Amino acid sequence: MVLQTLRPWRRPWKPLLLTWFASSLSASEAAEATRATLEARVATLREELRAAEAALAAAEDDGTSAAPWAAGPAVCNARMRTADLSAAAEYLEKQHALRAPFYIKAARRSFQKGLKQAQGIDKSNRDPFIKQHEGQLQLLGALDLAPGSAEIWFEAAKVAVALASLTDAEGQAQHAVDMFAHACTLDPPKLKEALAWLDKKESGKSSKITQEEQFVRKLVREQIEEWGESGSVPVRHPDFLSTLKDGICFPTREYGKMASAHPKDVAKIVDGFQVRNAFPTKILSVNVRSRLPEGFTTRLADLAVRKYEQFGKKYTDIDPNDLNDKFFSFQATHADRLSRSDEKKWPEMYRDSEDFKILTRVMKGALLGFLNKTGITLPQGDQGYGLVLWAAVYPGNGGRHGYHVHQGSASSCVLYARVAGASTPISFIDPRGAPPVNDYEQYEKERDFEPQAPFHHNEYFFPTEGDLVCFPSWLVHNVPSHWETETRVAFAANLQGDGAWDSWFHTAVGWS
Ligand SMILES: *[C@@H]1O[C@H](CO)[C@@H](O)[C@H](O)[C@H]1NC(C)=O
Q1: DSSP reduced 3-state for 426
Q2: Which pLDDT value is given to residue 59?
Q3: Domain that residue 408 falls in
Q4: How many CB atoms lie within 10 A of CB 50?
Q5: Residue 191 lies in a domain
Q6: CB count, 10 Å around CB of 31?
Q7: Angle at 17 between CA 15 and CA 23, to 5 degrees
Q8: CA 381 to ligand 1 centroid distance, Å
Q9: Taking the CB of residue 125, how many other CB atoms lie within 10 A of it?
Q10: Is residue 48 part of a domain?
Q11: What's the pLDDT score for residue 68?
């Protein structure tokens, strides 16, 4: 498979582990060794251990954690797990183009807040540099998501002008000039547009542009006018965004190679660094198809689709997302404690389906297994926690599931019974850009919320049929609009605490 050849860092792990054991020191050797040779041995052992750990991680990987940097500039640094890299990359490139404008708007909001601080209207901070920095990061997020879009570069340049006006205008103006240059290189008519915009004395809502911003506009305009006269736009690689050049597509992961660049004494210190990954977020996945009865996923998907279609007939003219909510509410979600009257709601599933009984056991086991595998023991076993299980059907009419977490649950799992190729992933959001404790229900439309840059690279999991993925219930996740001819069917489950306040504590505090 092509993916194998894209993984140059992948090394056979067995030989490495063997050398590691073989090079352990014997007691007599250690006694004779000088301090210097011992230190050298320790460094070598550490290096080998690191390589062995990396090789082990690669060996445990089933090959679907693709190497996205092979897939082109807009997605080369995307975090994703897919069995079909080119389809996933094509999908993500479109997603990224849709996401980019949000970050332009976010940067403008940062500017507005910074301006209020600078003007003393907002007294939270007299110095607007934090808002300026926040805005700059959001602009970089936009450019990172749509590096080939002249429009995004152009809009980013405009906001960069405003942001520059908050502090140190002269130093910052050059960045805006570089962005205009890049936009004009991608799309030459933008030059005229830029000059016209720089001339304006009022902004969109006919509010006056500040004197500071007028000053930046003038600085920028002076340079851009020269391009018009000479008829050529200078080629500028914006050096404040080095990651947007070749560097963003990290070709391999190289560990521990920096030390030689330091003087000897510093190198020793650097070499001695212990690495800890703080605040981990663990996502577990496995494909269940080969381990369960033939046709398991197909039969469950068929049952869910049939019910969903019947159910939908009762509600014509309803938004697909509202229908999904209604379908959720209709279901008897406490799957391992169903009463007779629950069974009557959906007898084909709840009463007659052997597959559903298996599904119930698998999901309960997976939710507990997720905790167990990541080192968590629930104080009272699984007493006090109950299974919640439901089917989610996305017929391909734009249905989606907005950003959310599962309050009150410890772990969450999803089993994919039907998918539409490498499209409509589940996105797990980097908690550094989307705090778990936040009200995501306030964001009604699909593009009302995006995680804050530079923590805007979601973990995209493109499921294949039979994939089971588990994650902590506090991890913000969403399913983007599903526009496909193929229906997507997932069974989602939570391990929900009966009145427990500390459901999130197990993995939030317990993982290290
Ligand atoms: C996980 O389950 C095994 C088997 O029941 C048990 O021995 C082990 O202690 C569990 N680990 C945790 C962290 O609960």
Answers
A1: strand
A2: 59
A3: 284-510
A4: 13
A5: yes
A6: 8
A7: 100
A8: 10
A9: 13
A10: no
A11: 55
- Above 80 in pLDDT, residue 310? yes
Of the residues 367, 371, 372, which should be mutated to test ligand 1's pocket, given the most ligand atoms within 8 Å of the CB?
Answer: 372
CA distances from 500 to 10, 138, 358, 380, 384 (A): 43, 37, 27, 12, 7
Q: Does residue 340 fall inside a structural domain?
A: yes
What mean pLDDT comes out for the span 176-202?
Answer: 92
Q: 4-20, pLDDT tens digit by residue?
A: 333 323 333 333 343 44
- Amino acid, res. 509: V
Q: Look up residue 390 and give its DSSP letter.
A: E
Gap between the Cα atoms of 350 and 370, Å rounded? 25
- Going by alpha carbons, the residue nearest to atom 1 of ligand 1 is 372
Q: Is residue 39 part of a domain?
A: no
SS3 401: strand
**Does one domain contain both 195 and 292?**
no
d(CA 61, CA 53): 12
CB of 365 closer than 6 angstroms to any ligand 1 atom: no
Is 373 close to ligand 1, i.e. is its CB under 6 Å away?
no
The pLDDT, as a whole number, for residue 421 is 82
> Both 178 and 303 in a single domain?
no
Residue nearest to atom 11 of ligand 1 (CA): 372
Taken in order 159, 150, 71, 288, the sign of the CA dihedral is positive
Over residues 298-317, the mean pLDDT reads 94
Q: pLDDT per residue over 364-408, tens digit each?
A: 999 999 999 999 998 877 788 999 999 999 988 888 889 999 999
Q: Token pair for residue 49?
A: 């251990």
Residue-wise pLDDT tens digits, 462-512: 999 999 999 999 999 999 888 888 899 999 999 999 888 999 999 999 998
- Which phi and psi angles does 200 have, rounded to 5°? -65, 150
287 - beta bridge partners? 467
Of 227, 233, 69, 244, nearest to 152 by C-alpha is 244
Q: Please state the pTM of the whole predicted model.
A: 0.83
- Distance, CA of 280 to CA of 180 (rounded, Å): 39
